[in-house]
Structures are given as C-alpha cells and as structure tokens.
Amino acid sequence: MIKAILIDDELHCLDTLSILLKEYCPEVQIIERCHSGREGLLAIKKIDPDLVFLDIEMPGMNGFEMLEELSGVSFAIIFTTSYDQYAIRAIRFSALDYLLKPIDPNELINAVSKVITQRHLPMAEQFQMLLKQIRNKDHQFNKIALPTAEGFELVPADQVVRCEADDNYTHLYLKNKTKITACRTLKEVEEQLHDFTFFIRVHHSHVVNLNEVTKYIRGEGGYLVMSDSSSVNVSRSRKEALLKLF
C-alpha cells in the first residue's frame, strides 16, 4: 500500500479526492487529510508518507511555501490546482506531476501509476528549480527537467534538435550528438516545450525544433532533414500547419 497525505484547504476538494482514490486507486491508503500547509507539515513529519497530494492555492501558506519549510522531500508529490498558467508552467519545467481541478479519474490513475512505477523519488534539485521559478516570475525559463532512469537532467531547450516517441518514453536528440531517454511520453515532453514557440509536432511520433530544420522534401506528407542529418516524417494532417510556419 502507498501511504498518502491529502493537503487542501477546501473540504469538498478533500472529499472528492478521497472518493476518487478509494474508487480508482485502492492501492493508495489515505493516512491523513490536512486543511492547511501548517497541518500538512506536521503530518509529513509524523507519518513519513510515500505520497503527498498538495493543493497549490491555500491561504496563510500555499503549497510552494510549505515545500520551502521542509528540510528535505522523501516522498512522491502530486500537485492539485485550479488552472494557474504560471504555476503549471513551473511544475512542467521541473518534471513534476500535477492534477487540474476538477480532477479527472483517468488522469488520477495515470499520476498514481507513475508513482508506483518510477524508480526514483523526485530529486531536491527539481524542487529547487521549481521554487526558483515560482519566486522569479519574470524569469524566462530556458531549461527543462527530464526524468531519466538515473534521475533527471536539466537541458537547455534550444539544444534539442528533435524528440521521438518510444511508447511511454521519449528520445531527445541534442545538438552535441547525445541522446537522452526521458521517462515521459512525447505528449508530456511536448507540454514542457509548449512555451518555446520554435517546437512543433509534425507527426504522432515526432516533435522538432524548427531552428534545426535544414530542408523539407515534398511528398504525401513529406519529410524534414534536420541539422544532425536525421530525417523526420511529416504526417499528412500536419503538413499544412508546418508549411504555414515556413
């Protein structure tokens, strides 16, 4: 069983999440329900949970401020939030997980499944990166955090030539000829790259950096030749959108 703490100042949110977990994620045992960041801190120190569901927007002490109070994080964490574009961007860049309210059961199942299957807990650097981004809202993020089998890597987005799907993993090919295999689907990596406008999905299996495209070869969908001499197929349904950018 996964020992979990739920932290949210809204009672109806705690009730809804509790019901969803019991129905869809029976492997999660709710040990404590907390109504504030302060209560959450005490519960974490007392229980030593495996997983914490943490609301971001709370009066007095929000979820990010609560994290700053911890000397270390020895548990998995899933943020819960109403739509907050900046907070979501920061969480994505740090390769941490979140659920949008109202919580979708399928997204909850997927998030819990990641906790069960991941080999490593989030690293301190990921939380440091997240908190730094939250404190400096005018800061333009230029790196993304990529979870790997060994931990995670921070990669400047403009160094990525292309991304290729491989089931629940994504291979990222960099300008320095190295390859990183991220423990994330291509859709999730695409979301991390969303704010970098030079990336575009050209195929269900490929996202490319437009700045690294050297040639387009016509065809039913055609294909791209990248700066690393690789070829990337363009799907027929995405061809028009791609050509408009050129």
Automatic annotation (TrEMBL):
It holds the Pfam family LytTR. It comes from the Bacteria. Gene3D superfamilies: 3.40.50.2300, LytTr DNA-binding domain. SMART domains: LytTR, REC. Residues 144-246 form the HTH LytTR-type domain. Keywords: DNA-binding, Phosphoprotein. The modification 4-aspartylphosphate is found at residue 55. One of its GO terms (molecular function) is DNA binding. InterPro entries: CheY-like_superfamily, LytR-like, LytTR_DNA-bd_dom, Sig_transdc_resp-reg_receiver. This is DNA-binding response regulator. Residues 3-116 form the Response regulatory domain.
